[in-house]
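Slack export, channel: ligand-projects

TW: morning all. Re-posting the request from yesterday since it got buried. We need the structure predicted with the small molecule present, not the apo form. The ligand is pyridoxal-5'-phosphate; the SMILES is in the block with the sequence. No rush, but it would help planning for next week.
GE: picking it up
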Amino acid sequence: MSATGGLIDLAVPGVRGLQPYPPGKPIEELEREYGVQGAIKLASNENPLGPSPRVLAALERAAPAIARYPDGGGFALKNAIARHYGVDPECVTLGNGSNDILELAARSFAGVGDEVVFSEHAFAIYPIVTQAVGARAVVVAARHWGHDLDAMQRAVTARTKLVFIANPNNPTGTWLERVTLKRFLEEVPDRVIVVLDEAYFEYVDESSYPNGIKWIGEHPNLLVTRTFSKAYGLAGLRVGFGASSAALADLLNRVRQPFNVNSLAQVAALAALEDSDHLERACRMNREGMRQLTEGFRRLGLSFIPSVGNFVSVELPLPGREVYERLLRQGVIVRPLDNYGMPRHLRVTVGLPQENQRFLEALAKAIAASG
Ligand SMILES: *Cc1c(COP(=O)(O)O)cnc(C)c1O
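GE: finished. pasting the full token output, ligand included:
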């Protein structure tokens, strides 16, 4: 193979131009690279309370069985999800995180020559899965940092196979109301699969915020995704699910790996679902932490995008990347947003009260420091 070509020419066209998803910097990496101790991470929208104690107990009980393959059909977890959300088990697709479901949707429905519609400043996985399957991304300009559903509707063509909608959206924290979203579902052609990503559903505390799962009976082309990574505190185990018509779930299940959700993740998700008190504690702590952060921004004279999730994006007087670096040197990891087309913003996850406080103090120093 030539030096200029080589292996990359062997990859399918979509993969050749692909940039990998940039994850939040792990604490250990920061401590290793910057020589700091006691760093905090508010960069990946993880639950600062950790998992429910019931999850930890269930994991301990389940650990000796890991020599066995997991239940590939996820019988117990699927049934528990079905009961919890009032749907048939045939309507549930389990995923290795909800990212897995997003990718399954792309692989099942989109290919070369097809179009996939999503919003500017939307979740970074949408362009990646679109490009990986060789489809064309149609990126619709955002409105007030959020999805412009009317414009997204107009962007749908005969070639559109898939629309991704994040409600609320990450990294902006913006959200869509029930009436707006329902109208979109009514008007979009049935042949277009609508993926409604509700990764932060549990945190949202707004009366006009819809539960997309309620609509799967009326819209066979609707796929709602949920995750145990955020409010349930199981990000490290990788488990999420899709809720859809049984026909749509059947297609996703043809594509997914037979054992895509490991046995410990299944057991943990089941236990997490049963501990509503822990979930409530996490949501309460998030509301208080959000208030703490946004009041801190106001005191610093910084504007931010009002968010209903467990994170908030703040606008800075200098490039976000620069402030990100200055925060790293103080042992605080947040998320720069230049790859989201938001070079003046940083996204911070709501942490424990003392973590929020430490971030705000580090931020004050970072923006006060000149050059
Ligand atoms: C975090 C996140 C997900 C889910 O991630 P998983 O850990 O794979 O479940 C999905 N969508 C959005 C918008 C997210 O922010």
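GE: first-pass observations. The CA atoms of residues 98 and 368 lie 39 Å apart. Residues 45, 97-99, 123, 166, 170, 197, 199, 227, 229-230, 235, 240 surround pyridoxal-5'-phosphate (CB under 6 Å).
TW: perfect, thank you
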